[in-house]
Design goal:
single chain, 7 strands, alpha/beta, 7-stranded mixed sheet
C-alpha cells in the first residue's frame, strides 16, 4: 500500500485496542484484522489517547449512520475511504444497499475479511472521478460517510465531488471530519499519519467555502468526543483526555460537519 492507504491502519489499531478494553466501541473485526495484518506501531500512532479518539470518532459516525438509515430506510449508504473498517457490521439498522469504496489495493485486502452479497458490495472508488459517481446504483437518497478522508483532498476537490454526487441523487446526507487550516499546518510537526509517511494534508476553515457553488447546505457541527463516551474512560484519564481531544483547543484543529441537499 502507498503512504496514504497505510494511514488506515492507525484507526484500525486504535479501534482494536479500545475494543479489547470493552469500552466505547465493540469491533471484533478490527481485532481480527489487526491480529492478521498489523505491524509494529511507532510514535504517536500507538498513543492510547489517540486510540480513544479514533474509537469515539468511529462510534459517532456509526450512530449518525444508524440515525440516517432509520429516517431513510431505502437510502444507499456510500462509505468512501472505508479502509478496513467494519461499520457495515457495526450498524444494526437494516439497509437497502451499502457500498464500501476505497483504492484497489485496499479493496483487495478488504475482500479477505468481508463478503459481498445482494445488498453489500466493495469497489474501487476515487471521488475525483465523476464517471465512478455516475455509475453508482440509483436511489432517491444517499447517505455518504467521509471519515478520515477530507484532509487528503484540496478544498476544490471536495467541492467538485459534492457537485457530482448532488447531480446523482435527489437527497444526499454527508458526515465529514476535517482539519482546520491550522490543524493541517500543525500536522507537519505532530500527526500520527507522519509515522506512515504522509506529509501533506489540507484543512477547511469555513465549511461554506467548500459548499459554495454546490447544492449543499450546512446542517450541523457534531462533537467527535461526546461526554457519554468520555465517561467510559478510566476515571483517572478523563480530565487529560478532555484537555487534549475535547476542549476548545481541539476544535482549533479538527471539526466534524454534517451537510445535506
Amino acid at each position: 500500500m502507498n503512504e496514504v492507504n497505510r494511514t488506515l491502519f492507525i484507526p484500525l489499531y486504535g479501534k482494536s485496542k479500545v475494543s479489547r478494553q470493552g469500552i466505547i466501541i465493540k469491533d471484533e473485526m478490527a481485532e481480527k484484522i489487526w491480529d492478521a495484518e498489523g505491524f509494529e506501531i511507532k510514535g504517536k500512532s500507538k498513543s492510547k489517547w489517540l486510540g480513544y479518539s479514533m474509537a469515539m470518532r468511529a462510534k459517532v459516525f456509526d450512530e449518525w449512520t444508524e440515525k440516517m438509515l432509520v429516517e431513510n430506510p431505502d437510502a444507499l449508504v456510500l462509505h468512501i475511504g472505508c479502509g478496513l473498517d467494519s461499520r457495515c457490521l457495526r450498524v444494526s439498522a437494516p439497509y437497502a444497499k451499502w457500498i464500501d469504496g476505497d483504492f484497489q489495493d485496499v479493496i483487495e485486502t478488504r475482500k479477505k475479511y468481508y463478503s459481498e452479497n445482494e445488498k453489500y458490495r466493495m469497489q474501487f472508488f476515487d471521488l475525483s472521478k465523476s464517471e465512478i459517481i455516475e455509475n453508482l446504483p440509483g436511489a432517491k437518497t444517499a447517505v455518504v460517510i467521509l471519515e478520515g478522508i477530507s484532509m487528503y483532498l484540496k478544498n476544490e476537490e471536495i467541492s467538485e465531488f459534492l457537485k457530482s454526487i448532488g447531480k446523482k441523487y435527489d437527497a444526499v446526507h454527508i458526515l465529514m471530519d476535517a482539519y482546520t487550516v491550522f490543524g493541517a499546518k500543525a500536522s507537519k510537526y505532530k500527526n500520527p499519519i507522519n509515522d506512515v509517511g504522509v506529509t501533506q494534508v489540507w484543512g477547511i476553515d469555513d465549511i461554506q467555502t467548500v459548499l459554495e457553488g454546490t447544492s449543499f447546505k450546512f446542517v450541523a457541527e457534531h462533537s467527535m468526543t461526546p461526554d457519554k463516551m468520555i465517561a467510559e474512560l478510566p476515571s483517572s484519564e478523563r480530565w487529560f483526555f478532555k484537555l487534549l481531544f475535547a476542549g476548545s483547543f481541539a476544535k482549533k484543529i479538527y471539526r466534524l460537519y454534517e451537510i445535506s441537499r
